[in-house]
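queue> pop job 88
queue> type: inverse folding (structure -> sequence)
queue> payload:
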């Protein structure tokens, strides 16, 4: 009898260890999420008003694959639009302000590529339940503006200044992010995902170090670059996300 009990325990242990990861054996899922952050953290894309209240939104398309019973490998692409600072120095002008007729700030569009891992709590099996997610995000940043919509802010008449810069600049940046979230499964196929993401962009620190060792005024392009990094830092600081997806196979 004892030998039988030991044999049963061994078989059960092997079965538990050999559990196939995934939801009923299905490992691959696809989804869409919307990320929200307060626009007063970073200038909104629709107005030149500073600290205007509202929400910045980002659209994210993602794919996840269960590699272990409690771990998902996550890849995604995200699109967002922000506004950036409108005061600059340029040549002989010490204070130029960007004031287009549309009342929209200089437009910053980012395309983000992410790679991360979702680790579910020990009482859950992926892709269901509470999780923590660690990810690295690589951003391609594009700034566009009208070259003829700058004004000399020091002049009493606020003269329009033409042909400032190139009208378009491209940069790269990165973010390290940590998410606390929860996933639910409906009808054995629909995934509902929600959570809060905290992000930190090291590019702002790189800019501060560069400022310590630089002399004179930065170029117009570098001014825009620094403003881009500050806006990304604010926009990625804290985001709430809501998502929906489906288990494929």
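queue> result:
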């Amino acid at each position: 009898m004892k030998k039988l009990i030991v044999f049963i325990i061994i078989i059960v242990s092997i079965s538990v260890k050999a559990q196939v990861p995934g939801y009923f054996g299905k490992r691959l899922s696809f989804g869409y999420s919307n990320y929200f952050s307060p626009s007063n953290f970073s200038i909104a894309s629709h107005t030149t008003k500073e600290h205007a209240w509202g929400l910045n939104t980002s659209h994210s398309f993602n794919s996840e694959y269960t590699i272990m019973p409690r771990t998902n490998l996550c890849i995604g692409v995200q699109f967002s639009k922000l506004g950036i600072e409108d005061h600059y120095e340029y040549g002989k002008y010490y204070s130029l302000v960007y004031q287009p007729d549309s009342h929209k700030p200089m437009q910053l569009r980012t395309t983000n590529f992410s790679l991360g891992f979702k680790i579910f709590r020990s009482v859950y099996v992926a892709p269901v339940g509470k999780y923590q997610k660690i990810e690295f995000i690589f951003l391609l940043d594009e700034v566009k503006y009208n070259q003829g919509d700058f004004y000399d802010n020091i002049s009493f008449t606020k003269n329009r200044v033409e042909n400032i810069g190139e009208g378009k600049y491209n940069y790269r940046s990165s973010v390290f992010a940590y998410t606390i979230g929860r996933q639910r499964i409906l009808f054995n196929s629909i995934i509902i995902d929600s959570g809060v993401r905290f992000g930190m962009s090291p590019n702002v620190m790189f800019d501060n170090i560069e400022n310590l060792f630089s002399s004179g005024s930065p170029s117009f392009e570098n001014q825009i670059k620094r403003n881009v990094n500050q806006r990304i830092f604010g926009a990625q600081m804290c985001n709430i996300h809501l998502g929906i997806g489906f288990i494929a196979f």
